[in-house]
């Protein structure tokens, strides 16, 4: 009886680990920027300034992949931290501000798991306590570095094959946006450039076979030829077991084999 229970438990752990390692990309952290109070208002409560912004979408959030529980998995920085530009929310002309309307491209990024809803699902966000739920994107009125961070620190898995998707366009003309990533928020690799124009277009950048619990992605937004607008930002990864989980799994399977030999 004990042997049967042990074998069942180990098979369940093994199946779980294999599933986690072979599943498709997961939206770890996403932002639709609807938390802001309105055009040019860098506040999420109507009173205090907001130079960081928690994610409000994640496939790891058990309630529709959206809302308050998504905040644990990501943060946007425009406060000077992690290679971002320090934006003063109360400046007469902040470099990076919300603007309506929302973009349509990449709106379906959160989909892919049962029960998930697309970006701009305001009813879910309001039901989960979000103060504002407005159809907003973000525009750069001056050159600015915006950093989006995703983390799996509260999840038993790591992320690999990290990537970024977002919607983008310009107010006029074109803009070359630099996309780079870091694992520590300090040392960023060479940027990959994407070109935005006046068409609302989805963009995707993959960072290769990088395995990490935390990733920082920096968007360098210029304003030389046209002010760039971004929306529906998503940081995605394939979730794989932590190395310690695999070690424990191996030890457990080895112990099972030893017990089996003893009882044979």
Concise structural overview:
By secondary structure, the protein is an alpha+beta fold.
Describe the structure.
With 264 residues, the protein is an alpha+beta fold. It has one domain. It has 3 helices and 12 strands. The protein has helices at residues 2-22, 122-127, 243-263; strands at residues 25-31, 52-54, 74-77, 96-99, 137-140, 144-151, 157-170, 175-182, 192-196, 201-206, 214-221, 228-241. Strands 1, 4, 5, 7, 10 and 12 form a 6-stranded antiparallel beta sheet that branches. Strands 2-3-6-11-8-9 form a 6-stranded antiparallel beta sheet, with no helix packed on it. Helix 1 runs antiparallel to helix 3. The radius of gyration is 21 Å and the shape is globular. Residues 1-23 and 244-259 have low confidence and may be disordered.
| Biggest sheet record | 6 strands, antiparallel
What is the overall shape?
globular
- The fraction of residues in strands falls at 25-35%
How many structurally independent domains? Answer: 1
Q: Roughly what is the average pLDDT, rounded to an integer?
A: 88
Q: What is the count of DSSP helices, taking H or I runs of 4+ residues?
A: 3
DSSP strand count: 12
List unreliable stretches of 5+ residues. 1-23, 244-259
């Amino acid at each position: 009886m004990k042997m049967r229970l042990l074998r069942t438990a180990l098979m369940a752990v093994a199946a779980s680990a294999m599933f986690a390692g072979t599943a498709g990309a997961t939206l770890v952290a996403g932002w639709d920027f609807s938390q802001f109070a309105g055009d040019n208002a860098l506040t999420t409560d109507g009173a205090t300034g907001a130079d960081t912004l928690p994610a409000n979408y994640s496939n790891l959030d058990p309630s529709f992949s959206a809302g308050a529980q998504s905040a644990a998995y990501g943060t946007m920085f425009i406060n000077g931290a992690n290679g971002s530009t320090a934006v003063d929310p109360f400046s007469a002309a902040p470099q990076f501000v919300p603007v309506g309307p929302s973009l349509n491209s990449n709106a379906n990024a959160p989909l892919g798991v049962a029960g998930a809803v697309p970006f701009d699902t305001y009813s879910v966000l309001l039901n989960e306590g979000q103060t504002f739920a407005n159809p907003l994107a973000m525009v750069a009125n001056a050159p600015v570095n915006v950093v989006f961070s995703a983390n799996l620190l509260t999840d038993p898995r790591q992320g690999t094959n990290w990537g970024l998707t977002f919607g983008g366009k310009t107010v006029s003309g074109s803009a070359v946006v630099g996309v780079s990533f870091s694992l520590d928020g300090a040392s960023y690799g060479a940027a990959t450039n994407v070109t935005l124009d006046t068409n609302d277009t989805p963009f995707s950048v993959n960072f290769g076979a990088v395995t990490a619990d935390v990733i920082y992605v920096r968007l360098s937004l210029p304003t030389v030829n046209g002010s760039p607008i971004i929306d529906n930002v998503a940081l995605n990864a394939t979730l794989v077991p932590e190395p310690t989980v695999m070690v424990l799994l191996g030890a457990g399977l080895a112990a099972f084999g030893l017990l089996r030999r003893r009882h044979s």
